[in-house]
Amino acid sequence: MKKDVMKEHVVQMLQERGVSLDDIAELSWQLQAPYNNELTKQECRESVERVLEKREILYPVLTGLVIDKLAEEGKLPEPLLSVICRDEGLYGVDELLGLGITNIYGSVGLTSFGYLDKMKNGILGKMNQTQKNGGRVTTFLDDIVAALAAAASARLAHRGKAKKEQVM
Amino acid sequence: MKKDVMKEHVVQMLQERGVSLDDIAELSWQLQAPYNNELTKQECRESVERVLEKREILYPVLTGLVIDKLAEEGKLPEPLLSVICRDEGLYGVDELLGLGITNIYGSVGLTSFGYLDKMKNGILGKMNQTQKNGGRVTTFLDDIVAALAAAASARLAHRGKAKKEQVM
Amino acid sequence: MKKDVMKEHVVQMLQERGVSLDDIAELSWQLQAPYNNELTKQECRESVERVLEKREILYPVLTGLVIDKLAEEGKLPEPLLSVICRDEGLYGVDELLGLGITNIYGSVGLTSFGYLDKMKNGILGKMNQTQKNGGRVTTFLDDIVAALAAAASARLAHRGKAKKEQVM
Amino acid sequence: MKKDVMKEHVVQMLQERGVSLDDIAELSWQLQAPYNNELTKQECRESVERVLEKREILYPVLTGLVIDKLAEEGKLPEPLLSVICRDEGLYGVDELLGLGITNIYGSVGLTSFGYLDKMKNGILGKMNQTQKNGGRVTTFLDDIVAALAAAASARLAHRGKAKKEQVM
Prior knowledge:
Four copies of one chain form a homotetramer.
Chain A: H1 3-16, H2 21-32, H3 41-51, H4 55-72, H5 80-85, H6 93-102, H7 108-119, H8 122-132, H9 141-167
């Protein structure tokens, strides 16, 4: 599948799970705004778009979204099904995929990912509540969204630095 | 699920996919023997057993084995199904899980994992051939087996060092 | 150097930089207490001690502490000296070492590490202030302390799980 | 320091340690040629150049090269000095930096890095021999060179894929 078709597919899967690219851009803006007071949400949105054009990011995103969905539909075998449905704290594979996503922009996105994953800002908090209420399985989704926001933010940090240098 | 029950479950899943703990121990011995000429295959087998008693290792192993199986049975949605069935070289999620497994014994297992994954020694070569012949899906299996062997070998390296110190 | 001698050496280096094992245990307790209301600070302290008995953790800790010290004494060549002295946000090698430390207890410690590194709780906030005031170089130290606390906390999470299973 | 000045500085440091960008390109070509029989060494050389334009890669490269040099000049404190001078197998920080470098192009570069680090192809074998003969300290250098070659190769793999898609 071509990369742009896969991107479209992933964006639609995120949408079906209640996450828009603007939600991710909002998290990314919250992360990066303290360091750059001219940053607009539009720039963050564009950064999220660029991040989703990398195959090495699309694959772990796609994999995590599929596992969540299969879990929600009861289509995973036990004991994996229960582990994922109750978002077992020691599972860790969701964090591994998140790490794979943020790493593409260097290790500086790592702490932002960890921070978002723990603080459950914005859409992440809502997601978590939905899962606890027995609604949907978002075991991978929250890590994926946090990782994409952290990646988009790290990308902006690297670009901001490069831009400043050109001005100098 | 209790840890020892999960271990038993994972060992059985490996068996069903044609991999015994002795196969993994053999790879581990090949990795470690050049540095320790007294190392027996029995010690390697025991190291593999210990590695499979860690929950942080059992979870990625279990997840990878389940994805392979679902792919083989055609139970994953597209485009993920095709990506995994043809073991797409840029997929990378299999390596992410492998990395998560070897990391538990420090970064020294990392190069052994990469080496095995590339050289396709022993059972790894057979697996790969089976997949190419359209037999089974082993996209995650080969990384998992290589990572377990590398982890068991790194564990022995750390223990060997500790033992030598006690003698001194 | 024997492992226990190296541990002692690292503990002393931390002390010289103003960090006691109790400071790290305190951070670890803050991370883990919400999930375990019987957890004592003494248990956290013991977990920090165990974490510092692993060679794969002692090495990155030692390396980071040495780099900070050489930077403080102006003994690194440029441009690395300036990058480390001003704790350049895009440097990332400090986070890489932190990641190497937390990984030993699985990916679940990763988000705690990121969270601490961003929130600058307790001793981490003080450190950061000292560096900003031109006092000392703590570019690696804060990541090391956050990573050790996250590792000690992840270790307790895994053990707590194991203990509960034995009771059942 | 501006990014292009830092690149130049790093290239010169590599040169001083006996490694040219063509040496790295050669390793990269060996890795990638089996998958792409039209690949030229010139393309690999260009890929190495691009890889060295990323700040998130320049920083770990610079850090590793500086540590090797300080070790060679006896300017690191003990016990770190001895650990690095004898390229202690369990040290692992060199692999951590290598991992940080390859990760920028996704986890697919990981196995190539491990493979090169173990096989000691081309310049890597020579380096290793030099260190064993008591010549120079190349504890970080070999991992850095292997990681740069793996990164340049993974970058080409991603681009080759993208190019094929445009043709289709």
